[in-house]
Amino acid sequence: MSKPAARPIPPFDYSQPPGAAALMHPGSVAWRIYKNQIALAIGGVAAVLMEFADPRIRSGVWDHSIYPVDPIGRSQRTGHAAMIGVYGPADAARKLIAGVGRMHAKVAGETPGGVAYKATDPELVDWVSATAGYGFLTAYHTFVSPVSEADQNRFFREGEAVAVLYGVQKKLTCRADFFAMMEGLAAGFEPHPINREFLDIIQSGKAAPTVPRFLHRALARAAVSILPPLIRERLELGREYNLSFADRAAVKLIARLAERKHDPASPPAQASVRHGLPSDFLWRKRPEQLRLLEGLGLEAA
How far is residue 100's CA from residue 94's CA, in Å, rounded to a whole number? Predict the structure, then answer.
C-alpha cells in the first residue's frame, strides 16, 4: 500500500466560534496538563516508544505512514490532533477524529514476524490511547508539578470523551488500569532498531534547530526515564539513555518555565477566550480559576 504524502498542518483558530464547548471541561486536569509543551514533548516520545514495543503498531506506523521520511512532521500532526481533541470545539474534534478513523481503517498488513494486524484492532486502539494518556500525565507529574492520585484518576476518566471517538473499548480509570493492560500485552513486546533510530532523530535537534542540542538529548532521555521498567527492559534501552542529574535539572527548569509562560496565541489561551474566560485563565492559581468558572456558571470539573 502506498504511503500518504506529507501535508502541512492547517491553521486553526481555537478562539472561534465564541461559546463553543470543548470535549474537555476548562476546569479539567487535561486542560492543565496539555498546556505544558515540554510535558507533551516528553510524554509524546515516551508514548511512541511504548507503542513501538508492539510489533503490530510499529509495522503499521512504519509501513503505512510518512513516519520514516518525516517523523517530526508526523509527530507535529499527532500533536495537532491532541490539541483539538482537548481544546478545540467539540464539533471540530469529532470531525478531525472521524478523519483519523477513516485513515486508520485502510491500514492493515503483516509484521516481519508474520503476525497480521489492522490499525482498527481494538487491542491496538486501546494501547495507543493508553500510552498517550500515561505518557503526558507521567511527564507532567515527574517534571512539572506533582499530580495528586485523585487528579490522576480524574485525568484518565476525563479522557473517555475523546477515547470513545477513537474507538477505544477498554477505557482507563486509573494508573492501575494502564499497568494491567501493559501486562496483558507484554508477551508480544520486543526490541527493534527503529526505536533507537527514533530516539536518534529526537536527540538530533531537527524538531527545533534553535534549541541547544543538549536539551534535545535531555528530553529524549527524560522520555526513556518515565517508561515502565518492563517496557524499557523489553526495548533494551540501557544505561546510555539514563537521565543524568544535570539532564534532570535542565528538563525540570525548562518544563517549569513553560508552565509559567502565558502565550495568548496558544491553543489553551485561545480556547479559554472562546469559553468566555481570560486568556491567561490556565496560568492563574487554582482558587481564582474556580471563581472564574463559577462566575460563568461553569461548575468545576
Answer: 10
